[in-house]
Amino acid sequence: MDNAVILAAGAANPLLPNWWEVLVTLVGFLVLLIIVGKVATPMFEKTFEERTAAIEGGIQKAEAAQAEAEAAKAEYQQQLQEARTEANRIREEARAEGAQILAEMKAKAAEDAARITEQAQASIQAERVAAQASLRTEVGSLATDLASKIVGEALEDDARSQRVVDRFLADLEAQQQGASN
C-alpha cells in the first residue's frame, strides 16, 4: 500500500484542473463573450430600443388622441351651449313676435269691430231717416184723406195739406216726448 500512496503522491492532484483545459476553456469563453458582445448584444439593444420607441410612440399617440378628444369634447360643449343659447333666443323672439302678432290682431279686431259698429249705426240712422220720411209721407197722406172724410171737403191744396200734416206730426212728437219724460 505504500506503493499506491507514493504513486498517488507523484501523480497530479485530481482537485486541480489541467492548465491546458483551463486555457482552452478560457479562450472559448472569450470567443463566446466577443460574439455575444458584438452580435447578440447589439441585436438585443436594437430590439429594446425599437420596443421602447414603439411604447413611447404609442404613449405619445395616446396622449395626442386624449388631447384631441378633450379638445373635441370642449368644442362640442361650446357648440352645445351656443345651440342652447340660440334656441333660447329664437324661443324668446318667437314669444315676442307671437305677442306682437296677438296685439296686432286684437287691435285690428277692435278696429274692425269699431268700423262695423260705426257702419251699422250709420245704416240704422239712414234707415231711421228713410223710415221717418216714408212714415211722414204716408201718415200725411192718410191724415189728409182722413181729414177730408171728416171735414167733408177735399183738401186739395198741397201747401195747406202739408201744413196740416206738419202740425199734426209736431203735436204727435210733443205728446211722445211728454210721455217719455
Structural commentary:
The protein is rod-shaped. Helix 2 packs across helix 3 (158-180). 91% of the residues lie in helices and 0% in strands. With 181 residues, it is mostly helical.
The backbone outline, from C-alpha atoms, is: rod-shaped
Helix fraction, binned, reads over 70%
Mean pLDDT over all positions: 84
Unreliable stretches covering 5 or more consecutive residues: 1-8
> What percentage of amino acids are in beta strands?
under 5%
Number of helices: 3
Please count the beta strands (DSSP E, at least 2 residues each): 0
| End-to-end Cα distance | 181 Å
Sketch the major β-sheet.
none
Counting helices, strands and paired strands, the structural category is: mainly alpha
Order of helices and strands: HHH
Task: Provide the gyration radius in Å.
Answer: 67 Å
Quick gist of this model?
This protein has three helices and no strands. With 181 residues, the protein is mainly alpha-helical.
Structural key phrases:
single chain, 181 residues, mainly alpha, 3 helices, 91% helix, disordered N terminus, ion transport, ATP_synth_B-like_membr_sf, ATP_synth_F0_bsu_bac, transmembrane helix
